[in-house]
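Example for tutorial group B:
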């Protein structure tokens, strides 16, 4: 066998070996998922998902007779309906002490709609009724917690009607008429310290039987 044939055979063997290494070793290494370095942080969420707004949410005042507004950070929602959902969801969360919610524990938002004329329809879970302690004042504070959470933060919403478990209800506990959207009212809101007293007045009363 000639010297040229031997050299050619060696070169072919070298090329074949290199091709095999690239195919079975190199390519898998290049394309395999790279393990995250220890201590590295996961990729950040989209800015949209992390965006917050400041809003006024309402909790029972210290004397238990009114609602007191507190500025809280709430998740941003695109558009009036989505932002309304975010506000109600935040309002329904159990607050950290010493804040007290007027909404029965466990109440969830089932759905929320906004009509063309700016009325919001807030569908709450049955807990809003079954877990309610009763009493006219307690019911007023529960209802206006929801009404004010929307009408105070979203100018596009002029009234709020509360539904329960997908249905219209006359009242939550027999006192406040919920058969129509209720407008914003500050009569049940505690006055800011040093400011004028909040006006007094009556909440819409449920119709009484004969």
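The residue assignment follows.
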């Amino acid at each position: 066998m000639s010297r040229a044939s031997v050299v050619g055979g060696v070169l072919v063997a070298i090329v074949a070996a290199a091709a095999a290494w690239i195919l079975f070793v190199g390519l898998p290494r290049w394309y395999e998922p790279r393990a995250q370095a220890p201590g590295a942080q996961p990729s950040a969420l989209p800015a949209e998902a992390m965006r917050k707004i400041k809003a006024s949410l309402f909790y029972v005042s210290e004397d238990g007779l009114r609602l007191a507004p507190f500025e809280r950070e709430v998740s941003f929602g695109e558009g009036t309906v989505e932002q309304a959902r975010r506000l109600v969801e935040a309002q329904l969360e159990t607050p950290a002490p010493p804040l007290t919610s007027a909404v029965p524990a466990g109440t969830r938002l089932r759905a929320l709609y906004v009509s063309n004329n700016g009325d919001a329809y807030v569908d709450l879970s049955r807990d809003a009724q079954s877990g309610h302690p009763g009493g006219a004042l307690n019911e007023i504070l529960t209802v206006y917690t929801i009404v004010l959470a929307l009408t105070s933060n979203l100018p596009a919403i002029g009234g709020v009607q509360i539904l329960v478990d997908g249905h219209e209800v006359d009242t939550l506990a027999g006192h406040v008429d919920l058969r129509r959207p209720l407008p914003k009212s500050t009569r049940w809101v505690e006055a800011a310290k040093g400011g004028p007293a909040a006006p007094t007045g009556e909440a819409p009363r449920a119709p009484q039987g004969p």
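The first helix runs from residue 3 to 31. Compare this with the pattern of hydrophobic and polar residues in the output above.
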